[in-house]
Fold:
Amino acid sequence: MTEPVYCLCSEPYDASRFMIECDHCKDWFHGNCVGLKEHEAQDIENYHCPKCSPKFGQSSYKVHRNSHRHDYSEPDGSSPVQCGTATFIKELRNRTFPSAEGILRKVKGNNVREELLKTDGFTKPLLMEKKDGLGLSLPPSSFTVKEIEKNVGSTRVIDVMDVRRQQDHKMTMSEFREYFTSPHRNKVFNVSSLEVTGSPLGKMISLPFLAKQIDWVENYWPKETQDLEDYCRPEVQKFCHIAVKDAYSDFHMAFGGTSVWYHLLMGEKVFYLIPPTPEHLILYENWSFSPRMSEMFFADQVAQCYKCTLKQGQTLIIPTGWIHATLTPIDSILFAGHLLHNYNLELQVQLYDVEQRIKSHDQCSLTYPFLEATCWYAAKHILDIATNVKPNKIPSWLPSGIRALSALLKSWVSKKEYINHQDDMPVLLDYVRLSKDIAKSIKNLEHMLPDGDNGVKREGSKRLKGKIEDEDKVQTETNMKDRKSHSKSSKIEKQEKRSGKQE
Structure:
């Protein structure tokens, strides 16, 4: 059977290339073959291809009828204001919020080390006025979008958010640079998922000392997996965010339950911060499922939302679970990195479950690449900590954290769930034995702690059993061999999809 062809180029359908249908002849055309960008198609009411336009006239465009709806062609009636629109931005700028001064911890860069977290925990955002002492190396503040293009590649395809519509589009880096440097911007675009680890730009970035000390990928991901595994090391540590004036990102939690460091290289960025209380997390999940989500400003649903204005040269580290939105008052370039770590382990596990439920509803949401494999590698080292810890030296995060992690790992190796998680189980580990050993280690911790300390009760509590029941056992050796035959290329493709990276 002959494969159908389309467009002026007479080529078959390619899902990776943007196409548009002619409203007259009903044929489909590649955007680059007819000189049309993907984001421009959203403004067309009726499209006429080059073959039809001489006879039936040029394409017609939608009429702007409102400034408060994602579809600006809607009649200017009484519909609620939607986030990101011109009206929304104007109203947001005029609103007042409690200052984040009371909930931030201002720290000097040379004090931002793991010892700080051991002493004081990691529940509040950290603000550093200067990056001196952080160990963070970045391009100079004079670095431009044109230089970013040069160092990531002009043809690199990136995800760009159309802020007014809150829709993602694909652009090449050269197309975005052309837009950013244009004196006449008719849209507001935001780039927030440009991961640059493997590029020349990535080589200009050195992670903060804190990230090097506590991040699971930095410390627990084995170097030898590159040759032995059919997936590769997650690349989530070096993001470049580029936003123009009035760009807005709606409320969200960092993917995978990660903590995030942000450094503002140029411009200004406003963060709206909501602490991850149990009540707020429930409200956030309900809001995420609401069909009216874009019409409901999440800060109005909660008791506490704080405003933090990040200035050029400042660094902000947001701990696990903090729900936040951002507004860009002036053109800005921001660098950021995500990290998983031990100090918010229990909450990270909780947010994994939240993210899985939201992901089932919103397939477009970004996720941490190979999160489950990362958890397995971290589990091996956390088991070592639990096994060798002395009664008077038990880290505050360990009892509740290892308990939550044990329950999660046990669910992944159960007969019911194994088929859904087997691809992310590392072949370098005996993961069933590891899961059992972690469950056993909890009993040892319970006997070391006072009754009820850190959420772990010694008597009268339902302890996690040290044994995985027979019906939950899996044939690990056979499954490991089967997974070794998976193609590496398919896994790399999976990582790029999850992390938002586009080559």
Notes: The chain has a mean pLDDT of 87. Residues 371-388 form the longest helix (18 residues).
